[in-house]
């Protein structure tokens, strides 16, 4: 049923798993002697975050933050609204922000600055997908990237359109007639 709305599969289930395994190894090395707070950005990053923390062999704590810069719009407004804040105090702690996709970078810039303001010992970013062509905030460069994707409207593996398609096991390009 959902497949009929997909123009093409951009990243297969196997390619996602390879990226998760590679990132898990890198993050294990990075945080082997540190306790890290892994912050997932709801809702899109939840599936990726579940996989990435299981691929990390380190002591960690998880927390979630829900922010919105889109509202009901197709494009980010640039204004970030915190819907659910963290329950964890960050002062003096190492923070790994987990994102599903980095597009313009506006929301991520806001979050990184916020966590630094809250006196985190370090703030690093891990994203499954990076879409550098659309980057507005040029100083936002993720520390860990699963895959780079072209400027297409992608859904699946947590990414949505109108809260649908998150449950696809791959990343697909949504047919334009669905979102236009």
From TrEMBL:
<protein>
    <recommendedName>
        <fullName>Hypoxanthine phosphoribosyltransferase</fullName>
        <ecNumber>2.4.2.8</ecNumber>
    </recommendedName>
</protein>
<keyword id="KW-0479">Metal-binding</keyword>
<dbReference type="GO" id="GO:0032264">
    <property type="term" value="P:IMP salvage"/>
</dbReference>
<dbReference type="GO" id="GO:0046100">
    <property type="term" value="P:hypoxanthine metabolic process"/>
</dbReference>
<keyword id="KW-0328">Glycosyltransferase</keyword>
<comment type="similarity">
    <text>Belongs to the purine/pyrimidine phosphoribosyltransferase family.</text>
</comment>
<dbReference type="Pfam" id="PF00156">
    <property type="entry name" value="Pribosyltran"/>
</dbReference>
<dbReference type="GO" id="GO:0004422">
    <property type="term" value="F:hypoxanthine phosphoribosyltransferase activity"/>
</dbReference>
<keyword id="KW-0460">Magnesium</keyword>
<dbReference type="InterPro" id="IPR050408">
    <property type="entry name" value="HGPRT"/>
</dbReference>
<keyword id="KW-0660">Purine salvage</keyword>
<keyword id="KW-0963">Cytoplasm</keyword>
<dbReference type="InterPro" id="IPR000836">
    <property type="entry name" value="PRTase_dom"/>
</dbReference>
<dbReference type="GO" id="GO:0032263">
    <property type="term" value="P:GMP salvage"/>
</dbReference>
<dbReference type="GO" id="GO:0006178">
    <property type="term" value="P:guanine salvage"/>
</dbReference>
<keyword id="KW-0547">Nucleotide-binding</keyword>
<dbReference type="GO" id="GO:0052657">
    <property type="term" value="F:guanine phosphoribosyltransferase activity"/>
</dbReference>
<dbReference type="InterPro" id="IPR029057">
    <property type="entry name" value="PRTase-like"/>
</dbReference>
<comment type="pathway">
    <text>Purine metabolism; GMP biosynthesis via salvage pathway; GMP from guanine: step 1/1.</text>
</comment>
<dbReference type="GO" id="GO:0000287">
    <property type="term" value="F:magnesium ion binding"/>
</dbReference>
<dbReference type="GO" id="GO:0006166">
    <property type="term" value="P:purine ribonucleoside salvage"/>
</dbReference>
<feature type="domain" description="Phosphoribosyltransferase">
    <location>
        <begin position="14"/>
        <end position="161"/>
    </location>
</feature>
<comment type="function">
    <text>Purine salvage pathway enzyme that catalyzes the transfer of the ribosyl-5-phosphate group from 5-phospho-alpha-D-ribose 1-diphosphate (PRPP) to the N9 position of the 6-oxopurines hypoxanthine and guanine to form the corresponding ribonucleotides IMP (inosine 5'-monophosphate) and GMP (guanosine 5'-monophosphate), with the release of PPi.</text>
</comment>
<dbReference type="GO" id="GO:0000166">
    <property type="term" value="F:nucleotide binding"/>
</dbReference>
<dbReference type="GO" id="GO:0005829">
    <property type="term" value="C:cytosol"/>
</dbReference>
<dbReference type="InterPro" id="IPR005904">
    <property type="entry name" value="Hxn_phspho_trans"/>
</dbReference>
<keyword id="KW-0808">Transferase</keyword>
<comment type="pathway">
    <text>Purine metabolism; IMP biosynthesis via salvage pathway; IMP from hypoxanthine: step 1/1.</text>
</comment>
């Amino acid at each position: 049923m959902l497949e009929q709305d997909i123009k093409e599969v951009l990243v297969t289930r196997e390619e996602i798993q390879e990226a998760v395994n590679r990132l898990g190894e890198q993050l294990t090395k990075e945080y082997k002697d540190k306790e890290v707070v892994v912050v997932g950005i709801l809702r899109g990053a939840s599936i990726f975050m579940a996989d990435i923390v299981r691929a990390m062999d380190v002591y960690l704590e998880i927390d979630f933050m829900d922010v919105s810069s889109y509202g009901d719009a197709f494009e980010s407004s640039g204004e970030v609204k915190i819907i659910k804040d963290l329950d964890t105090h960050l002062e003096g702690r190492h923070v790994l922000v987990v994102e599903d996709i980095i597009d313009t970078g506006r929301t991520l810039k806001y979050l990184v600055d916020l966590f630094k303001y809250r006196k985190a010992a370090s703030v690093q970013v891990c994203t499954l997908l990076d879409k550098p062509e659309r980057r507005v905030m040029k100083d936002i460069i993720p520390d860990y990237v699963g895959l780079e994707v072209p400027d297409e409207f992608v859904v699946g593996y947590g990414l949505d359109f109108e809260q649908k398609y998150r449950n696809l096991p791959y990343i697909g390009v949504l047919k334009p007639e669905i979102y236009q």
